[in-house]
């Protein structure tokens, strides 16, 4: 089932999410709905707060980004093959490498893209959809997508990483999004 995406301005996007247990109600259905919603919205990641759930769950498919890079771009990320993965109860262990800029966008903040600096590498501890524990290190674009989605479960947004002046210049667009004055190809949920 395709779920509505929570729009900028909704308080859940600023809530720190809670860990869940394997008996979370209809978890496998929720995960399937998140994948379907993400692909329908042309996203590469989706976090539970973006579908109005305050739980530490996000899905990432960076493999589709890597697959669409040209040869030169792929050479920039030689150790990044991309992943399609479910992250539950994720907690960052370490951040390594130089911060680098990449133009990010967000399904909850449509039609706004900005360069965001993030570290090259993240080591993260989580459980998968079967609640099998994992600790993995990701780099390149995959690390960036994971860090973007991880921000969501920490109540942060990509615009929090841009300079205050730039954010001030975006205020009118952000206000329009929070008021529902935006058209997108997917269903959105606005705060009342």
Automatic annotation (TrEMBL):
The active site is at residue 149. The keyword Hydrolase applies. Transmembrane segments: none annotated. Its cofactor is Fe(2+). Its EC number is 3.5.1.88. Fe cation binds at residues 106, 148, 152. The keyword Metal-binding applies. Pfam families: Pep_deformylase (PF01327). Binds 1 Fe(2+) ion. It catalyses: N-terminal N-formyl-L-methionyl-[peptide] + H2O = N-terminal L-methionyl-[peptide] + formate. InterPro entries: Peptide_deformylase, Peptide_deformylase_sf. PANTHER family: PEPTIDE DEFORMYLASE. Removes the formyl group from the N-terminal Met of newly synthesized proteins. Requires at least a dipeptide for an efficient rate of reaction. N-terminal L-methionine is a prerequisite for activity but the enzyme has broad specificity at other positions. HAMAP family: Pep_deformylase (MF_00163). NCBIfam families: pept_deformyl (TIGR00079), PRK00150.1-3 (NF001159). This is Peptide deformylase. It comes from Flavihumibacter stibioxidans. The lineage of its organism: Bacteria, Pseudomonadati, Bacteroidota, Chitinophagia, Chitinophagales.
């Amino acid at each position: 089932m395709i779920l509505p995406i929570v729009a900028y301005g909704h308080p859940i996007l600023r809530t720190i999410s809670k860990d869940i247990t394997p008996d979370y109600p209809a978890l496998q259905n929720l995960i399937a709905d998140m994948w379907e919603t993400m692909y329908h919205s042309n996203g590469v990641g989706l976090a539970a707060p973006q579908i109005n759930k305050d739980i530490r769950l996000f899905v990432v498919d960076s493999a589709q980004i890597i697959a669409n890079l040209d040869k030169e771009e792929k050479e920039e990320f030689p150790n990044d093959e991309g992943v399609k993965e479910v992250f539950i109860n994720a907690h960052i262990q370490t951040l390594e490498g130089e911060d680098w800029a990449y133009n990010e966008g967000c399904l909850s903040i449509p039609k706004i893209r900005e360069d965001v600096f993030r570290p090259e590498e993240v080591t993260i501890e989580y459980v998968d959809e079967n609640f099998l524990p994992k600790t993995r290190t990701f780099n390149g674009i995959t690390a960036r997508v994971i860090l973007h989605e991880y921000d969501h479960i920490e109540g942060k947004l990509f615009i929090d990483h841009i300079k205050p002046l730039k954010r001030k210049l975006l205020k009118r667009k952000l206000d329009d999004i929070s008021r529902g004055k935006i058209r997108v190809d997917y269903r959105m949920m606005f705060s009342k």
